[in-house]
Every structure is written in C-alpha cells, then in structure tokens.
Amino acid sequence: MTTHSLKETRKEEMKEEFCTLLRSTGRQHVKEVIDGLEQLGFFEAPASRQDHMPMPGGLALHSLNVCKVARMLAADMQEARKGLVIPDQSIIVVSLLHDICKSTRYHLNNEGKYEKDFSFLPLGHGEKSVYLLLRAGFELTDDEALAIRWHMGPWQLALHNEEMCEDYKSACHSTPLVSILHAADTLATHILENEDDI
C-alpha cells in the first residue's frame, strides 16, 4: 500500500470539523476530552499501521468517515423501522470517539514505517477507549459505552470465551448503536477509505 500524506491545512480542517461536531453534542467535559486527545497525539495519529489511513491525521479522518456513515445508517434504520429512536448526539459521540485508544498505538521507526506499540494502558481495544473517556470525566450513556466497547463486532470473539460471545450478543440486543457503529466502521474502512480516493 502506498503511504499517503494529508496536507497540514486538511489536518487542521479535519480537527476543526471533529471538535465542532463533538461540541455540538452539548456534553460536559468536551474541552477536557479534546485537550486529552491533543496530548495523546490523536490528531496526528494514523488509523492503522498499513491497512487503512496509515498516515499522520488518518485516525481523525477515519473517525469523521465513520461518523458520516453512521449518521446515514441511523437515518435509514429509523426510516425502515418506525418508532426506532437513535439520538444523533449518540451517533456523533460513538463515531468520533470509538478509536481514541489508537492515539498512542503506532510509532514511526527509523525507516519511516509505523510499528505497533501496546505498552500504553493495555486494556483492550474498545475497553481502552471507554476507560479514557470516563477518566476524562466525559459523560457516556450505557448504550454509548456498549457501542464503543463492542465496535469491533465479532472479529475478536473467536479468541475469547463463551461468556464474551454472550456479552456481545446481549449488547447487540440492548441497543442499535452497537450494530450501527460496527457497520459504519467497517463500511468507512473498506469503501470510503479506498487509497485511490485519499
């Protein structure tokens, strides 16, 4: 995969869009979360080492892409199933913040390639994002915490036990946010983030 780069002006635009969307939720402690993301390097981090958005600023762009797709999916699901209510505020929160755990995961080596680093707070993928938000004092609903925790869907379940599989199924039944975030994450990664379109 060819490594792309985002212009500094594009990274600043993405950061402003991200922060404006997050502030639009009206949640307390948004400033603390944004400051924390800055300190962790979120706005400069890649979304992955080589699979999707492997460039400085890729994580913020991926999060915005997931938000775009999740809002479309939520609108379509609410149209398809009358009476279903999925708060846009929740869609914004889970989409933008689901991968903040990746802020410290990748580091450039001497050859200019990203290497994985799991040394900072090794709690697990979704769990770490939830923990970092709660530690910053950010208010999450139970549904939002479930969606962020389980946004990888069933991908990790084969490595775990029956109890974890049951927890995942229960989370999916508890709130549509779990399925919407997982689907949006997958669609953004494999369709919106085609390297030819970057």
Describe this structure in words.
It is built from 8 helices and 2 strands, in the order H-H-H-H-E-E-H-H-H-H. The model has no long low-confidence stretch (mean pLDDT 90). The chain has 198 residues and is mostly helical. Strand 1 (106-108) and strand 2 form a beta hairpin. Helix 4 (88-97) packs across helix 8 (176-192) and helix 6 crosses helix 8. Helices cover 55% and strands 3% of the residues. Strands 1-2 form a two-stranded antiparallel sheet.
Which key phrases capture this entry?
55% helix, 198 residues, single chain, mainly alpha, 3% strand, 2 strands, 8 helices, two-stranded antiparallel ribbon
Q: Secondary-structure blueprint of this entry?
A:
Elements: H1 8-23, H2 30-40, H3 58-80, H4 88-97, E1 106-108, E2 114-116, H5 125-135, H6 142-149, H7 162-174, H8 176-192
Helix pairs in contact: 1-3, 3-4, 3-8, 4-6, 4-8, 6-8, 7-8
In short:
The chain has helices at residues 8-23, 30-40, 58-80, 88-97, 125-135, 142-149, 162-174, 176-192; strands at 106-108, 114-116. It has 198 residues and is mainly α. Strands 1-2 form a two-stranded antiparallel sheet.
